[in-house]
C-alpha cells in the first residue's frame, strides 16, 4: 500500500477508467480527469505527487499543462507524458517543458506501472537525502502566448496525430489549424488568410493529399497567396506525379516524420 496520489489525464474514458482501476489495485490513491482545463484545476486543488498525462487532450493539451505546471507557484508533480510520437525531437521538447518521462503510445500497463514506481521511488530517495528548502523556488515565467491566427495547416485524417502535431508546433511558437479531408482543408485555407503553409498527408482516407495541392492551384484567390506545402507519406511518392503538380512542394518526408524537419518548414514560412 502507498500513500502516493496520482492523477490520470486521458480523454478516452474507457482507457482512463481502466487505468484508475488498475492503479487502485496496486494501492495508489487515484484521481482522474478527461481534459486539460480540469487537470490543471485538479493539480492545484489536490496536489498529486505524480501525473500521467496524454499529450493530446480537449480544451488544453498536454503541452499546455506542462507549461502551466512549470509556471505555477505550487510544488510541481512528477509529469509522465504519453505521446503518439517517439522521435527524439518530440521527446526532447516534452522534457524541456518539464516531463520527467515520456512513454510512446500504445503503452502497456506493465510499462506504465514500472515508470510510475521508478519515478516515485526516485522522489522518495531525493526526499530522504535532501533537507526541506527554506524558501520556495521562484516560479518560472510562462511562455508568451502565440498569436491566435494560425499560420500553418496540418492536413491529416488521423485526428490524434494531427492535433498532437499542432500542439508540438504551438510549443515552438507556430499556431496551427487542423483538417482531415481535402474539402475541410480548402475551407480552413479560405477561412484563415493568415495560413502560409500546409503539412499534407499523402493518404487522406479515399483522397490524396496531392489533390489538395491541385485544387489550391485551380483556385485563383488561394493560388495568389503562394501557399507552401510539405508532403508527408508512409510510402515514397511517385516522382513523376510530384513533378507534374502545378505547385511544387517544399519537400516530401517519410512518416514517422521528425519534428525538427516540420519545425524547419514552419520556420521558413
State the shape.
Answer: elongated
CATH level 4 superfamily of the largest domain: Response regulator
How many helices? The count is 11
H/E topology pattern: EHEHEHEHEHEHEHEEEHHEHEH
CATH architecture field of the largest domain: 3-Layer(aba) Sandwich
Q: What is the mean pLDDT?
A: 84
Explained architecture:
- This protein is of the alpha/beta class and 269 residues long.
- It has two domains: 5-129, Response regulator (Rossmann fold, 3-Layer(aba) Sandwich); 152-267, Rossmann fold.
- 43% of the residues lie in helices and 19% in strands.
- It has eleven helices and twelve strands.
- The strands form three sheets. It has a five-stranded parallel sheet with strand order 2-1-3-4-5, sandwiched between helices. Strands 7-6-8-11-12 form a five-stranded parallel sheet, with helices on both faces.
- The longest helix is centred in the middle third of the chain and has 21 residues, at 109-129.
List the helices and strands and how they pair.
Layout: E1 5-9, H1 13-25, E2 29-33, H2 36-46, E3 50-54, H3 62-71, E4 78-83, H4 88-96, E5 101-104, H5 109-129, E6 152-155, H6 159-171, E7 176-179, H7 182-191, E8 197-201, E9 203-204, E10 207-208, H8 209-218, H9 220-223, E11 228-233, H10 239-243, E12 251-254, H11 259-267
Parallel strand pairs: 1-2, 1-3, 3-4, 4-5, 6-7, 6-8, 8-11, 11-12
Antiparallel strand pairs: 9-10
Helix pairs in contact: 2-3, 7-8
Write a concise synopsis of the structure shown.
With 269 residues, this protein is α/β, with parallel strands linked by helices.
